[in-house]
Each structure stands twice: as structure tokens, then as C-alpha cells.
Amino acid sequence: MNLRSAARGFLAFLLSVPVLQGNDEWTVTYSSSNVCALRGATFDISCTYEYPDNVQHLLTIVNTLWFTKGDKYQPVDLENDTDYTGRVESSCEDVSCTGSRCHGKCSLRIKDLRQSDSAVYKFRLTTNQPGGEYTGDPGVTLSVTDLQVKVSFLYPTDPTRVKLECHSMCNLAGDPRYIWFRNGQNVLQGINYWIYIQYGYNYSCAVEGYEHFLSPLVYSPKTPSVTVSPSGEIEEGSSVTLSCSSDANPAANYTWFRVNRDGSSRYMNQGQQLIFKLILSSDSGQFRCDTVNKLGERSFSISINVKYGPKHISVLSSPSGGIKEGSSVTLSCSSDANPAAEYTWFKNNQPLLWGPRQPHTFPSVRPEDRGTYRCQAENKYGQLSSNLLFMDVQYEWNIGLIC
Questions:
Q1: How far is CA 109 from each of CA 106, 134, 348, rounded to the nearest angstrom?
Q2: Domain boundary pick from 96, 122, 145
Q3: Per-residue pLDDT for 4 more than 50?
Q4: Are residues 135 and 164 in the same domain?
Q5: In the prediction, which pLDDT does 173 show?
Q6: Contact 360, 350 (CB under 8 A)
Q7: Which structural domain, as residue segments, surrounds residue 203?
Q8: 194, 219, 244 — which closes off a domain?
Q9: What is the largest CA-CA distance in the chain?
Q10: Which H, E and C letters describe the chain, residue by residue?
Q11: Tell me, what's the pLDDT at 52?
């Protein structure tokens, strides 16, 4: 088989010895036993069957078919198989007899090959005689593959230049020429292609003359996307997972970093996920996912905001020294909370109708303001009470503040 006939179907006959199956001097011979073809190409195979001419006047061949599914007792005709609809053609020539043998030839064609078409194909015929069913074993093994682009560094010390190599599982007949494409444009002929890394370019190859059978594209990572699970607000103490993904070929490697306020980074984890089994309020901040393959790298940052109930609550008086009747006094409450807490004030454990956030000021403190004060901070994630503050309002010669 010359290069032109092999390339027509992109086939490589890896083993081309006749395969025979005999039964009462019936034989089935395939043109090849193993075939490798490229995805999208056309697969052609044929077989010849023989039987004694002394039964020619007794029998009629009533059916022929090719199959991969089922068995020789209940085969599924490829022309009735929904996986091959519109892609299968089969035909048989008229039987001729020479000497003491009669011969027939049948062929099968499958167009637009898919990788799922990789299978063992067998021919079967049925005659009008009892038991007159014959299957050619072991059949023809078809392997469907893509052209592939292998990416490697040209020089280990130079990570900016890579080597692209076009190859296939199929040993294509002859010495085919390859065409290289960059962003769909023809840029080179040859098996190998040397490039300097540039973001935004993709590369593929094909056999010259069959440019519509392109290899899968290879390209640097595209801008990653990051998801947070579970979605919505993040509560302190919950389990949170950050997941990073990027479209890249070859597949990208992933690394997570914590971005500090000064812009520096701290390594966190290798892999697509960054998992907080028990997230803390201190984990609020910015995180960066770096994606990299041999053709380049891209990054994406995300900020997370951890919510939590009030912590570290305290109540203060200003001035903090002695309290003189008629003077101005301000009581203030503070806490660490996210979101910010609302405050409720109590005097002698009875709630006061003071504003929920603002410090409370006594413009002119009076003796009846004397008592024990505290505040309570609350948001949707919790509440917390402050320490007690005793405000003792006295005349000028008897002033005191006891906490």
C-alpha cells in the first residue's frame, strides 16, 4: 500500500496477514487484522469469503452484515446501530466460482471516525441452508486516535522556549509532512516546532493535505475562575473550600497563596482546592490561585470575608476619673464583630432606650443617674455582654467611679 492510498483514509495497517475462519470448508479472509486511524478520518476494510462450488446450486446467501456488538448468534448490524447512523456503508460483490471454489467479497466503510468507534469488527453471512451462518473470527481490530502535540522544554535552563512535537499512535505509512498552525494560521511545515512562550496563542498540527484533521489545540492557561463552597456568607467555624479551575492544554498545575497587605505572598497549598476545615476570622483577606503549564501561566485573586459574632466587648466612661454632679459624662461600648454589632444598654439590669450604636452622653449628670451600667453587643451571629461599670455621682467633695 503506497502513501497516497494509506493517507486517503489515514490508516496504518499494523498487521496485514490474512485472518481465516473455516467451517465445512468455508473461509473468511480479512484484508487486515489491525488498523489504526485518526479521529475524523474514513475507515475502509474488506473481506473475502469462500466455499465449495459443489454447493453453489443448493444455497442462496440471504444476508450479510458487519457488527461489533452482540455475538455471532445475535449480532447488531452496524447499519442498524444508532451509534453509527449516517456514517456506515457496506456492500458486497457478486459471487464468482473458479476451479472448485466460489468467492465473494464484501467491504465496510465508516466515515467521520470517533474514538468510541475503537472496537473489533466482524463480518457475518447467512445462507438458506440449515445452520448456514458463518462469522469471520477473530475480526479486525480498529484503534481510533488523535494526532497529539507533545510539549517539552527545549533547554532545561530556558523556561521561555518550548518544543512542540506532532505525533500519533498510528504509524502512518511513508513519511508524511506535518503542517503547524498558530491561532488557526499556517505557520510552519515539519514534525517539530520551536516557540517562545506567549500568552493568547494556541497551536495544533495536521498532516499536509488533510488540514481538516487537526490535532487538539495546545495553549497556556486561560484566566482562572475561583468558586467558594458553600456559596453565600462565610461564618467563622464553618468548613470552606476555594476551588480554582482554568482551561489549559496541557493541563495546568495549581498553587494557592495568601496575599498580605503589603502585596507580598505566602504559599498555602498545591492543587486546585484550598480547604479551611474550621475557618477563623483571621482568615479574612485575599487569596491568589496561580495556574501554570509549559506554555505559560495566569493568576486570579479572590477576597473572602469571614463573619462572626461579637468578641472582646468592653464599656468605658469618659472622663474615667471622679464624676461630679452636673458634669458631662459619656459611656461608650466597643466590640470586635463582623458585621458591626448593635448595642443595648442596661442600668441595674434594666434595658435603656438609648441608641443602638452611639455612645451615650449625660450632658449634666445627676444623683439619680447613679447605678451599675453594662452594654450588650449583638449581630446575626451572636451576642455578648460587657463588664459592669458602677457610676457613683456625688457632690464635689465626694466623687468616685468604681468598676
A1: 10, 21, 95
A2: 145
A3: no
A4: no
A5: 53
A6: no
A7: 147-219
A8: 219
A9: 141
A10: CCHHHHHHCCEEEEECCCCCCCECCEEEEECCCEEEEECCCCEEEEEEEEEEHHHCCCCCEEEEEEECCCCCCCCCEHHHCHHHCCCEEEEECCCEEECCEEEEEEEEEECCCCHHHCEEEEEEEEECCCCCEEECCCCEEEEEECEEEEEEEEECCEEEEEEEEEEECCCCCCCCCEEEEECCEEEEECCEEEEECCCCCEEEEEECCCCCCCCCCEECCCCCEEEEECCCCEECCCCEEEEEECCCECCCEEEEEEECCCCCEEEEEECCEEEECCCCHHHCEEEEEEEEECCEEEEEEEEECEEEEEEEEEEEEECCCCCECCCCEEEEEEEEEECCCEEEEEECCEEECCCCCCCEEECCCCHHHCEEEEEEEEECCEEEECCCEEEECECCCCCEEEC
A11: 83
pLDDT of 297 strictly over 70? yes
Both 151 and 141 in a single domain? no
Average pLDDT over residues 325-346: 93
Per-residue cell: 41: 478520518
Place 80 in a pLDDT band, splitting at 50, 70 and 90.
very high
* Cα separation values, 295 from 32, 121, 253, Å: 40, 40, 12
Do 9 and 136 share a domain, yes or no? Answer: yes
| The C-alpha cell that represents 306 in the structure block | 469571614
State the pLDDT confidence band at 403, using cuts at 50, 70 and 90: very low
- Give the separation between CA 38 and CA 89, rounded to whole angstroms: 19
- Decide if 197 contacts 160 (C-beta within 8 A): yes
Residue 181: CATH number of its domain = 2.60.40.10
pLDDT tens profile 180-189: 999 999 998 8
Cell representation of residue 149: 502535540
Lowest mean pLDDT among 82-91, 189-198, 344-353: 189-198
pLDDT score at 19? 37
